[in-house]
């Protein structure tokens, strides 16, 4: 697993599975950004997520391009972009749909282990 403070890109199914397994074993909050290269709002939110990854190094940040990992996007029921999932112990506990910068840090703090 990469160091805290980074957004980890998952570009293959094996890489996705490995990162999710490591994240579940760590018992940390996982924030997953579902994105696409053609999505303007996705490109706008990406630098903000990178800042949040630095601000919250105890949280694991993953990035998934829906065109690269279509099966993962389908399994996670991604219907709009960007969609941010919040995952604990392998379970999706919340989601943010759209580039709602104000909502992201609040949800991270709310779902972080106390």
TrEMBL record:
InterPro entries assigned to the protein according to its UniProt record, in alphabetical order: Thioredoxin-like_sf, Thioredoxin_CS, Thioredoxin_domain, Thioredoxin_H-type-like
Domain spans labelled Thioredoxin: 1-114
Name this polypeptide is given: Thioredoxin H1-like
Species of the source: Canna indica (Indian-shot)
Pfam family, one: Thioredoxin
PROSITE patterns reported in the protein's UniProt record: THIOREDOXIN_1, THIOREDOXIN_2
């Amino acid at each position: 697993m990469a160091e805290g403070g980074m957004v980890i890109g998952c570009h293959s199914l094996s890489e996705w599975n490995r990162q999710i397994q490591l994240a579940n074993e760590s018992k940390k909050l996982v924030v997953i950004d579902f994105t696409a290269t053609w999505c303007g709002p996705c490109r706008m939110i990406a630098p903000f997520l990178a800042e949040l990854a630095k601000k919250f190094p105890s949280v694991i940040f993953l990035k998934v391009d829906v065109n690269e990992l279509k099966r993962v996007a389908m399994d996670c029921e991604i219907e709009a972009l960007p969609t941010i999932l919040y995952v604990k112990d392998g379970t999706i506990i919340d989601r943010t749909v759209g580039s709602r910068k104000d909502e992201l840090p609040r949800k991270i703090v709310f779902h972080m282990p106390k």
